[in-house]
Amino acid sequence: MSPSPVPQPRAATVRGALEAELSSAPETGLTAKELSARVGISEKDVAGHLEHLEKSLRAGGAALEVIPSECLACGFVFKDRKRLTRPGSCPECRSTRIEPPAFRIR
Ligand SMILES: [Zn+2]
Asked: Which residue intervals define the domain PF0610-like rubredoxin-like zinc beta-ribbon C-terminal in the entry (predicted)?
């Protein structure tokens, strides 16, 4: 982590980059961690940008698809989860070994 004053990319540019990356992985999707590395934003900022991207995609007739998180311990799938971030723990078995959600554009 360097404190150098690198200017933050404009939000619209970030969303364009996210859209391009998501379009490049239509099969498996990309997790927030992968997107943060590819686009150069912090992982915790990915969900906020994706929420805005989702709105603009919908206006254009596309959609952001969420491949749900899954518990690695018991296989529970977080199908009904609305938030785009990784769940903290499994409601079934309390495990914190959770596969993060992945995102793609359809
Ligand atoms: Zn579980």
From this structure: 68-105
Give the tens place of pLDDT for each residue, 36-74. 999 999 999 999 999 999 999 999 999 999 999 999 999
Confidence of residue 5 (pLDDT cuts 50, 70, 90): low
* DSSP-derived pairing of the beta strands 70-71 and 98-99: antiparallel
Report yes or no on 42 lying in a domain.
yes
Cα torsion angle, 6, 12, 13, 18, sign: positive
Distance from Cα 49 to the centre of ligand 1, integer Å: 28
Q: Please state, in angstroms and as integers, the Cα–Cα distance from residue 95 to each residue in 61, 68, 80, 87, 99, following that order.
A: 38, 16, 18, 11, 11
DSSP tag of 79: T
Residue 87 belongs to domain spanning: 11-105
